[in-house]
Amino acid sequence: MSEQNSSKTPRALLFVAGFCHFLGVSSLSTMMKSLLSLCFLLALGRGAYARQTVDVRTFGTYATFSSTTATTTLGQPTASLDEVQSFKNGEYVTIFHAGPPCRLSVPGAPAVTPSVNAGGLGTVSARSGSAGFAYEIVAADKFGCYTAASASGSTSTGNALGVQSISIISGTRTDNLQTIETAAAHGLVVGQMVYIKYFSTSDGSFEGTWKVYTVPDRTHFTFLSSLDTRAGASTAFTGGTMIGFNANRISWTAVPGAWKYYIYGRTAGRFARIGQSLFPYWVDYGSPMNDNQTFPAWIPTTAPSVGANDHLTSRIVFGGGTKTLTLATDAGASLSGVAIKSDDGPALKAAASTTNGGRVYIPPAGIILNSYTLLNQQFFTYNFDMAGSITLYDTLEFDGGVNVTSSNSPPSMAFNWANTPQFTGTAYPLISTASGPNHFEKVALNCTALNGCLDYAAVADDSNINDTFEYVVWATGAGQTSDCIGQNAIFATGGFSFRFRFNTFTTSPCGPNSETSVGLSPIPSIVFTPRLSDNTPTGNVGIQSSWFLNRGAFDFDSGTSNLGVPYSWMNDAQTQNSLMPILQFTGTGLAQGDFAIHGINPADYPSAMIANYTNKPVTGISVSEITAVQGGKNFFTGNPFSGVVGNNIQTSLGINRDVTIGGATTSFIVDGVFNTQPAGFTPGGGNIGFQNFNAVTSIGNPYKLFVNGTKPAAATCSIGSGGAIAPDTTYSFAVAPVWWDNSVGGFGPFINNCRTTSENRTITIKWTDIPGVKGYYLAVGGPNGLNASGPLSPINTCQVWGAYHPATSTSFVWTGSNSYNCGGSLPAAPGGGPTMMNADGFYAPQLLLTPVLFKNLGTSDNFTIKMCADCTLSNPCAGGGTGALAKRLNNRWVCN
């Protein structure tokens, strides 16, 4: 499709559609119907034409990539090359900074705040130190212009940056408060995140990442956890190593129109390029954590004193293959020795702007973008069919919904899908989206910078963004060992919904490719943070059948929002070499988690899977089908979680309070019933399922807790003479216990049948005594309990208590005239048992008190009862006896 014809398609389509509308409201004669039909055919044909596949190569992609330097003259469309290249007429080039003037204002001096990491991307202010740091800021727009550097901002109270390690002497746990003693001054502050290294202490339950709760002195600090000595947690450990992260948080006033910022520092007078940010702040962790980043070739390596224009991106009109190119656009600046490069960005934009929703084909050889490429055709959606990769040295932005898929189906491989077309390169970010919905499938987002990557940025004021990623590989760091701060994605939109299915989330390690790198960077790869403009939190998130490697992790940052994190879920996740928890909750806002987690299989390195780095307990977490963390380490870490519900957990949770666990099994439990031996296997025993209610359990009034009684034996029956029961009918009977709150227990079987005759119409029913009952419910049915009902009342009444047989009876003679069947449906399940507790009290067949010695009676509250093993029968109690029941009355123990 030619560019000229394609540009006319929308107008032609609108004209045809309008003409059809005119015919539609005219008189529908036979001729009009024919014309109307023709109009619809024309409209459909033009619509199909508009939505057909277009090949990006037909819109001016380069044949041979070319790059050299050039000279431009303000107001002239020529570019004089320093050497002949393979540029061709009709292709596009970008000449750095030869475009329109920069209209951005110079940023103000930044504020520098010595800080420490508080979990995720968060920081809190650090203790004052004595190190000096200074920074300058350069603002840039999307299309290549940048400003002069700002005035410097500095601090003289900083600290040594990056990882800080210190030895631990010992620690204790009281309730759920851990107190740690360090071998030297630790320099910690309240709210800081610290990592007690795995396998470094004598008790692994103290290991993990935690939030500092208090700092009593220079060598002690405390943290809270979900492990509590009152629920059986261990109380002490020795040894260990702890690390924290010192940083400087640099912030400044946002520059109107700026797309991102470049940060220069860290020593006054030597302002080297060290970072970039989409936000008006940046956190510097120093060297080596911030080393080995890749920046655009056109951004100065030292702080510039003057700014530069936008790039000149234009089509070659004439002169291809020579040293003088005539472009379609005049230069905006006179420059010499400036870089000129082949650029497929304009060709991609032209192709994508041709077809609204039609496919844009990316060939197997791929394309290269050297300029910011903004796809923002109004009311358009984009559809990419990628047979090859798009290499990005500047960002590709979709301002309109996009569907991206590849022509390659993902083969079956662990952690990756081979030969998948990629969005690759070193642009920061590779992809930006400003609206939606967006769908990416069977592609990779692979930033190849060694550190500081950002694959995907959704930073926009659009609560309707709805992103879906299927069979997507997210990668940073190029497989090297310096990827400490690279990220897969940042979502700051307040969007509606985000779905990840069959994804791989991976970074390269920050340090050696071994478990020694666990915890050496606090930066997670994917962050959901509130929208900048109004603090609206992210929409709900679903993660299905995905892999997490190295720093691959999701951070749900509530910021300062009181709306919390909306409902989200993770199902079927595999980790490999995880260096941090794959689900993290951060921020200072509402800590409502509302997160359902099913099927996590950690592998290789020891690391907790879920972390609370907020300042409050995270609530609303449900976990199930969880396998063991390597080394038996805790699944949860950080500040306490509240109200966790779990099922079939096969690992140490790291929670023994405010948690309900069901469906778990163990290798062996001696429960005294199914397993009665102290070791080994008991016939009829085996693994016992259990539920753990380490939480406050509320039972609504008038509900109750009860223990089922044993199942009653089968009732027997015999036929006798006389009586008025229906003749020639088969009956069967069953009994159920009636307990002390008038609840009915479980029924015995209907297995004994009796048949009346015309002479024998009396039936005697007998049953086995059940100790401790209040009475019996007698049920009657046809053969083997067919259509059973009841109760069969002993005194011709259906009112409780008279409809039940007394506890002293074990038989009943039914004549047909002395009783009648109340005809009620039988209870489907037991309503009570021999041991019950409700608002009225406690019912039990016996009460066994654990004996205590006289010397250990203590000073309990009045009306307390204890079994004193060596008391005498006296008032007050005294020792030296053979045992007595001790009652606390009038502040003394009475044993008479």
Describe the structure.
With 896 residues, the protein is mainly β. Helix content is 6%, strand content 39%. The protein has a 19-stranded mixed sheet that branches. Strands 24-27-30-32-34-37-39-41-43-45 form a ten-stranded parallel sheet, with helices on one face. Strands 2-3-20-19-4-21 form a six-stranded antiparallel beta barrel. Strand 12 and strand 13 form a beta hairpin. Helix 1 packs antiparallel against helix 2. The longest helix is centred in the N-terminal third of the chain and has 22 residues. The radius of gyration is 39 Å and the shape is elongated. The N terminus is likely disordered.
Secondary structure: number of strands: 64
Give the CA-CA distance, first to last residue: 106 Å
Radius of gyration: 39 Å
Main pleated sheet: 19 strands, mixed
Structural class based on helices, strands and sheet pairing: mainly beta
Number of helices: 3
Q: In which range does the helix fraction lie?
A: under 10%
Beta-strand portion reads 35-45%
Shape: elongated
Uncertain segments:
1-50
Mean pLDDT: 88
Name a few traits of the molecule:
19-stranded mixed beta sheet, ten-stranded parallel beta sheet, single chain, 896 residues
